[in-house]
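Help needed: design a sequence for this.
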């Protein structure tokens, strides 16, 4: 296996495979050390091997010039900043007279730097989507502009930012967009596999080939003498009619009802690989419960045109088929979000306390995952959240959010108090002294105040209160008891 090359969709999947492979090897052979297969990711731009491919001397693209030492992929912050600058210039060129020409309505244009940055973020995602799907920007001009009127002309002018000005900037700097770099990387992998086929097994696992470039890489791997493509989540119970409908639908352009089916992309991939549905071999044999549950889900997810077959389905007449399908399943009706998270946490804790039992929470709801993690922390259980932690929820991210909200947002005593009490706020004192002074500042400048101060007027508010106490205009036991040393410590504000 040390000569094998295995491709995974994400770095997380690659790391999980390496860990599971080592554990399985030790469990089966007793050895603690072994040469692992070469594990790679599909289009991962943070991979050193990926950057080596794109910086090879023989790498060539007619519209891209890569200079040694320069960053190949445009940084996200740089891209947003440049796009925001182009957007702001475009908006400034729209004079008031021209704005009134669009069907009596005034278009909403970026009027500030924050508006431009917000729109630049959306435009950057649009660029990545177009380049990922490998759509030609010039096809936009082929749409019947005479039928769509002035608003379409305005849209075309707006899109000129990404169709003309942005590519010029990239060419001048010798950079590429992340999505374009990912495509180039995959093309280089394809070329390398075709020119120098590996002698060992080449396996691609976990990808459905939804991205055109990835689909071509999977086709290349499937065509190798030792190439294998492991398709995830294929429903082996799909009917022949559904398969043919999916194949016919894949030839159409745009999104349709059938194209949103969970099995549509997988069937399309099999067609692109040149394999018949019956040629797919299943890895392992599921238990009877899972086999029947798979059949039940197959019926639930049937396209609407095929639901009339439910009543004639012979599977429903099999003995205890439905009972087997739902065996072990439970429904918890929670009154609110807190109760839902607590119920899940208790189930996970119970599984942890039962020998030889495992459990996992699978959810796309990140808020629910964080709530369950918090409930488990109350039980003294720390879990590995495969979804990762959001930067905004980390200690540093929360501090930056509070700082930005206090500097640029409206006056808010709660936000200001949160910033003052944050662990990362440095008052050039020990952490204990910093917290004590922050509490004093909150007491003097924030609590019981009619006029809320902001982060820039704390010093002025402290000075005012101190003078009021000295002149006897303010009599407040909590504030009057502050000693001179503490008042001196607030000079840092």
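Sure. Designed sequence:
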């Amino acid at each position: 296996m040390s000569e094998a090359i295995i491709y995974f969709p994400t770095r997380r999947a690659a790391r999980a495979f390496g860990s599971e492979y080592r554990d399985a090897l030790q469990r089966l052979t007793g050895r603690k050390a072994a040469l692992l297969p070469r594990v790679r990711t599909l289009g991962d731009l943070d991979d050193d091997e990926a950057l080596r491919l794109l910086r090879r001397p023989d790498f060539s693209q007619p519209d891209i010039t890569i200079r040694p030492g320069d960053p190949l992929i445009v940084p996200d912050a740089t891209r947003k900043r440049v796009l925001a600058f182009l957007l702001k210039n475009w908006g400034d060129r729209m004079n008031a007279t021209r704005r009134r020409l669009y069907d009596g309505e005034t278009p909403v244009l970026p009027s500030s730097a924050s508006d431009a940055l917000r729109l630049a973020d959306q435009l950057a995602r649009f660029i990545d989507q177009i380049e990922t799907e490998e759509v030609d920007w010039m096809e936009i001009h082929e749409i019947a502009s005479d039928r769509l009127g002035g608003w379409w002309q305005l849209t075309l002018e707006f899109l000129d930012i990404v169709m003309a000005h942005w590519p010029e900037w990239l060419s001048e700097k010798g950079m590429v967009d992340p999505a374009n770099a990912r495509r180039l990387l995959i093309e280089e992998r394809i070329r390398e596999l075709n020119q120098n086929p590996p002698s060992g097994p080449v396996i691609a696992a976990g990808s459905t080939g939804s991205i055109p470039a990835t689909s071509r890489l999977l086709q290349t791997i499937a065509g190798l003498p030792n190439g294998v493509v492991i398709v995830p989540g294929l429903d082996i119970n799909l009917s022949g009619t559904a398969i043919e409908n999916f194949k016919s639908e894949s030839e159409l352009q745009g999104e349709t009802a059938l194209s949103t089916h969970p099995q549509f992309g997988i069937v399309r991939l099999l067609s692109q690989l040149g394999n018949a549905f019956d040629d797919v071999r299943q890895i392992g044999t599921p238990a009877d419960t899972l086999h029947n549950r798979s059949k039940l889900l197959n019926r639930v997810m049937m396209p609407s045109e095929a639901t009339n077959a439910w009543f004639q389905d012979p599977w429903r007449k099999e003995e205890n088929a439905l009972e087997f399908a739902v065996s072990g399943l439970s429904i918890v009706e929670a009154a609110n979000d807190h109760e839902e998270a607590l119920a899940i946490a208790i189930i996970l804790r119970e599984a942890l306390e039962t020998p030889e039992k495992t459990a996992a929470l699978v959810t796309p709801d990140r808020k629910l995952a964080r709530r369950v993690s918090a409930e488990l922390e109350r039980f003294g259980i720390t879990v590995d959240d495969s979804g990762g932690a959001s930067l905004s929820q980390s200690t540093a991210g929360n501090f930056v959010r509070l700082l930005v909200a206090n500097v640029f947002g409206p006056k808010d005593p709660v936000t200001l108090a949160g910033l003052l009490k944050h662990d990362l706020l440095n008052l050039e004192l020990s952490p204990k002294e910093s917290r004590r002074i922050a509490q004093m500042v909150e007491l003097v400048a924030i609590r019981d105040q009619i006029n809320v101060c902001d982060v820039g007027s704390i010093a002025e508010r402290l000075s005012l209160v101190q003078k009021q106490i000295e002149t006897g205009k303010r009599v407040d036991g909590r504030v009057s008891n502050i000693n001179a040393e503490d008042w001196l410590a607030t000079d840092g504000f």
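The longest helix spans residues 145-173.
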